[in-house]
Amino acid sequence: MQNGENKYKRVLVVNDDNTKEDFINKYKGIDKWEEDIIYCQSINDALRYLEDGQRFCCDKVLLDIKIAWDVEEKYAAKVVRLVDVDSLEKEYGGFILFMYLMAKGFPINRIAFLSAYLSEEDSERKEKEQILSFLKKQKFRRKETDNELRKLIGQVSSQKAEMLRILENPAYKPRELKPYEEITKLLEKDLEQLINPGSQNANSGEMTIAREFFEKIAKTGLIVKNKINKANGDKLLSWIRNETEQELESYYAFRAAALNICDVLIEFYSELEHKRNEK
């Protein structure tokens, strides 16, 4: 059964760390999108889907950063026409596929990078640290501070619903600081899980790979906004679901209708061909 939110929406995931089953089980809420996810454990599998099967029929692409560039010659030949593969490190297979997608005209805002070594220092960490700093300064709870806190919470992409749930909990009195303390605990725990480049827990070698990867992209003049830490299931789910343009609703509705018509026609002509063969 297709996911009801956007029937026929397809998300291509290129990740060699897990099987599709492991990937689905790892992130809460992703199971609702299971039939919409095309899961490839190698660059070759991804190119086979893109070139042979659906002709780039996917709406979003999620790429692992460090994945080997090991592809069949027939696919490699297509890529080298558009990308100078020989000048790029083959361990950065995700980057090569990214450049190929760009060359084919795939929109950059529909590509995200998934890695255990993304620091998220560009957005998620700063936003959450800003909320934490605001909360630690509060000695009183007032309507004005609640409103300011809501604005700050609105800027983050994960844990937003949980923080608002705590803030709006009717069990807490209007002037009680307890919800601020609960949100503080939630943020402190969450920030510990986001890998910090300066942290002793960070793998410096892999951090360097992630940093160099995005430096390479920056040299192209492209800006990648969608960077997802593998520990951040909320952000991953939010990215899969999110649509920034309202008109896309009508696009998905139109495509669903068109593909349904194609399904009916394929079935009709298959039955017709079968009847002809029986004669």
Write the layout of secondary structure elements.
Blueprint: E1 11-14, H1 20-26, E2 37-40, H2 43-53, E3 60-64, H3 73-80, H4 93-103, E4 111-115, H5 124-137, H6 143-153, H7 160-167, H8 178-193, H9 204-219, E5 227-229, H10 233-241, H11 248-278
Give the structural class.
alpha/beta
Catalogue the unreliable spans: 1-6, 195-203
Any idea what the shape is? globular
Largest sheet: 5 strands, parallel
Word description of this protein:
Strand 1 (11-14), helix 1 and strand 2 form a beta-alpha-beta unit. This protein is of the alpha/beta class. The protein starts with 10 loop residues before the first strand and ends with a helix. The chain is globular, with a radius of gyration of 23 Å. It has 11 helices and 5 strands.
Name the descriptors.
alpha/beta; single chain; globular; five-stranded parallel β-sheet; 279 residues; 51% helix
In a few lines, what is going on in this structure?
This protein is an alpha/beta fold.
